[in-house]
Amino acid sequence: MARLRIATFNINGIRSRQAALLQWLEREAPDIVCLQELKAADSAFPADALREAGYSAIWHGQSAWNGVAILSKGEAPLESRRGLPGFEADTHSRYLEAAVGGLLVCCLYLPNGNPQPGPKFDYKLAWFDHLLEHAAKLLTSGHPVVLAGDFNVVPTDEDIYNPRSWLKDALLQPESRERYRRLLAQGWTDALRTHVGDERVYTFWDYFRRHWDTNSGLRIDHILLSPELAPRLRDAGVDRWVRGEPHASDHAPTWVELEMGAARKRVAKARG
């Protein structure tokens, strides 16, 4: 059966970590990749280097901040949207959507929201509200959809090494978590949590207080699957080794594997 590996990775600066990105792509060979925090203008995106590595790409850059991209091995992503609908006043490069591999892939970088309370947290919640509205429409579109990216939300206390140290952080605020719960309640499946069950798994370790060395992490990078895709989930994990490399991003790539062939047969049989 054909398996499709989809990954999300907050690269935290694609220019300074291009070599690390290419190393990861060569070693793990994901089929589709969502990148966040490019921190580079469109003109600085390394499209040629990625093409040599076997990946087509679309990107939505921004100088020094934000920025998202979707990579695909072979088939080029067909862009369908950049920026959230109804939020045209937003000047940040945080959302990119494309058809690729028979799926609709949505790459997002949700605002951090710190410090809170304040305008940055208000912006985070407003952005999340627009995402909720758009995500609901995606579910009714009839397309198989993947929502992947850095959500900047720790869903529960089981997704962080020690919530007491982060109680005032925007990532753990009740308003942030409640919106994430509302997103899942629409019908999305949190693929990594579904696959690993109660296991402690993290995707982010900040650069302070030896948090990587002591595995003091957070789970804030998520891949959500629409109801049609959820039964196809066969594997999921975090490429932790990437975080342990020299000059690494503070995130590690998160990935899922979907069994596409089996799903198509099940759908065909059901319709028959």
TrEMBL record:
Cofactor(s) the record lists: Mg(2+); Mn(2+)
Residues with site note (Interaction with DNA substrate): 251
Enzyme Commission (EC) number: 3.1.11.2
Record-annotated site: Important for catalytic activity: 221
Cofactor note as given: Probably binds two magnesium or manganese ions per subunit.
GO molecular function: DNA binding; double-stranded DNA 3'-5' DNA exonuclease activity; endonuclease activity; metal ion binding
A Pfam family annotated for this UniProt entry: Exo_endo_phos
Residues under site feature: Transition state stabilizer: 152
InterPro entries found in the cross-reference section: AP_endonuc_1, AP_endonuclease_F1_BS, AP_endonuclease_F1_CS, Endo/exonu/phosph_ase_sf, Endo/exonuclease/phosphatase, ExoIII-like
Enzyme class, first EC level, given as a word: hydrolase
Superkingdom classification of source: Bacteria
Active site residues of this protein: 109, 150 (proton donor/acceptor), 251 (proton acceptor)
Gene Ontology biological-process annotations: DNA repair
Domain Endonuclease/exonuclease/phosphatase, residue spans: 7-251
Keywords of this entry: Hydrolase, Magnesium, Manganese, Metal-binding
Binding site for Mg(2+): 10, 37, 150, 152, 250-251
The family this protein is said to belong to: Belongs to the DNA repair enzymes AP/ExoA family.
NCBIfam families: exoDNase_III (TIGR00195), xth (TIGR00633)
Name of the featured protein: Exodeoxyribonuclease III
Gene source species: Paraburkholderia rhynchosiae
Name of the gene encoding the protein in the UniProt record: xthA_1
